[in-house]
Amino acid sequence: MNVVIGGTGIRISTTDAAFEQILRAQYAGFLDTGPSPSIELTVDLASPRPADPDADIEVRRQGDRWLIDRGDFHASYNSVTQSATVAQSACRHGLDSVIRIIHSLQLAERSGFLLHAASVIRADRAFLFAGPSGAGKTTISRLAPADAHLLTDEISYVRKDSGASAGQDWTAFGTPFAGDLARPGENRHARVEALFLLRHGAGNRIEPVKAASAVHSILRNVLFFAKDPVLVRRLFDSVCEFVDSVPVFELSFQPDARVWSLIT
């Protein structure tokens, strides 16, 4: 089973047929039988960890390997051999977290990042809506016009175009990582037109955000757990390049579909 997100394929192998069917349903829109996957990931359900999904995630480097731990799983990812293993119970949430973390590590190397943001395509342009839980990501997604395509209401996959230099296009890709809408995004991608920092307000209002404030706010919403100074620096540089290329606004809004007349 090859799960492709943002052009990066992860082949997931498990000997448990029932668990595989759960995964196929979860990642249905992102399965690909075409090109060889970038990463091989083996799931070991014979060695489950005690269930504690609320425990903090720890990501640390050990030579070429990344060790990824949470209360309900233990994973190892070798960035050289592009192989990974995870020991967990038969619950997709642990594997979902491992996949996100592997993508976040790869993106940090490739001028990109995962962002706590909803993203929507309209008229072949992607619009990002960033903020912590409760900021309104799911609400703004639910209010999107009928001709819009939801990439995600929770975790956005953002990457600078291959070969693009600073000041050129950034692309948002759909992900299967769902928030409160409880449905995966569409497997599409588009150039990022703008990013909006969400705020609840008495009315609908859009205001530009200065670069330094935009960088600070985006970094607070980036999904990244590895305490690695080299990758953290690359991530910081990527966010700065993004802000140099993409306009960032503060969006205060009420739960009313008319807010989209300000956005597009």
Please explain how this structure is put together.
- The chain has a seven-stranded mixed sheet with strand order 1-2-3-7-6-5-4, with helices on one face. It has a five-stranded mixed β-barrel with strand order 8-9-13-12-11.
- Helix 1 links the parallel strand 2 and strand 3.
- The chain is 25% helix and 35% strand.
- The longest helix has 18 residues.
- The chain is of the alpha+beta class.
- The protein starts with a strand and ends with a helix.
- It has two domains: 108 residues, no CATH class; 152 residues, Phosphoenolpyruvate Carboxykinase, domain 3 (Alpha-Beta Complex), CATH 3.90.228.
Defining key terms:
alpha+beta, Phosphoenolpyruvate Carboxykinase, domain 3, 7-stranded mixed beta sheet, 2 domains, single chain, 264 residues
Radius of gyration: 18 Å
Low-confidence stretches: none
Percent helix, as a range, is: 25-40%
How much of the sequence lies in strands comes to: 25-35%
Give the helices and strands as they follow along the chain.
EEHEEEEEHEEHEEEEEHHEH
Instruction: Estimate the global geometry from the Cα principal axes.
Output: globular
N-to-C CA distance: 37 Å
Strands, total number: 15
Please tell me the total number of domains: 2
**CATH topology (level 3) name of the largest domain:** Phosphoenolpyruvate Carboxykinase, domain 3
Mean pLDDT: 90
Could you name the CATH class of the largest domain?
Alpha Beta
Strands side by side in the biggest sheet? 1-2-3-7-6-5-4
Number of H- or I-type helical stretches? 6
> Sheet with the most strands?
7 strands, mixed
